[in-house]
Structures are given as C-alpha cells and as structure tokens.
Amino acid sequence: MPDLTVTKFSHVKPGDTPYLPGGLRDFFLYRDLGIAEATHGKVIAHLVRANMAPENGTGWHRHEADFQIVIMITGWARFMYGDKETLVEAGDVVHQSPGISHYLFDYSPDMEYLEIVSPADFKSIDVAPVCEIPPCTPWES
Q1: Using the 8-state DSSP alphabet, how is residue 38 labeled?
Q2: Which one of 3, 78, 136, 139 is most buried, counting C-beta atoms within 10 A?
Q3: Per residue in 18-51, pLDDT tens?
Q4: What CATH architecture applies to the domain 20-75+83-107?
Q5: Domain ranges, ordered by start, for the chain
Q6: Residue 40, exposed/middle/buried by CB under 10 A (0-12, 13-18, 19+)?
Q7: Cα distance from N-terminal residue to C-terminal residue, the chain
Q8: Is the full-model pTM beyond 0.85?
C-alpha cells in the first residue's frame, strides 16, 4: 500500500499528455498534468482549452473543494461570481473561494487556463440561478 502522506516527484512535458475531451465540460478539452497521481488525489492540476463556441456555458454551479484557482494563460473568459460579472484575461489569477456560486458563460476561441483544485475528486453541484447572464460574444467563422 502506498504511503499517502508522501507525494511523488512529477515532471510532465508538453508532449507527454494530450488534450482530451471527457472532462467536466464537453465544450472544453483537458490536459492532465500528473499532479493528482503525484499527490495521491490531494490536488489536481490540468490545462483547460476552449473546444467549441460557448452556447449555454457551464450553468450555475459551485464546487465542493477546499481550494481552487484559475490562471488564464491565453485568451479570456467571462464569469459570473454571484451577481458580479468578472472578465478574466491572460495573466489573471482567480481564487474561487470554496462554495462560491459561479457561471462561466463566455470565452474566446483561444482561451486556455490552468486550473488547480483540492481535492482532485472535487464535486460540481448545480445551484439555482443567482441572476441573469449577459449574452455571449459570437465567434467569427
């Protein structure tokens, strides 16, 4: 049985793990960075990339997590955190406090962010709408 108090060394290069569908949202692609395995599920880190134009966004939800940050690498995304619209652009870092109701409703075609969450098997829970959602920015064909 592995010692779960000790994390493992991990080094993942860009070609080591592909961007794959099948994550939390079907309109995004996810690239695993090996952190969940290295920390025995204490933390997950993955890159999230836009895969399809926003239509309905993520819907209102919250996460059962102890810690979550989003670091925007390229592009931008528009979130609702409670009733406050927040534009998150390349270089921005957002700490999503535990249990905050939010909705990612719009993003650029080149959006990519690093998400780090603890625990790795965090849950996403749908919640009642907090407010109206602004319209999305159409992608050019």
Answers
A1: H
A2: 78
A3: 999 988 888 999 999 999 999 999 999 999 999 9
A4: Sandwich (2.60)
A5: 20-75+83-107
A6: middle
A7: 53
A8: yes
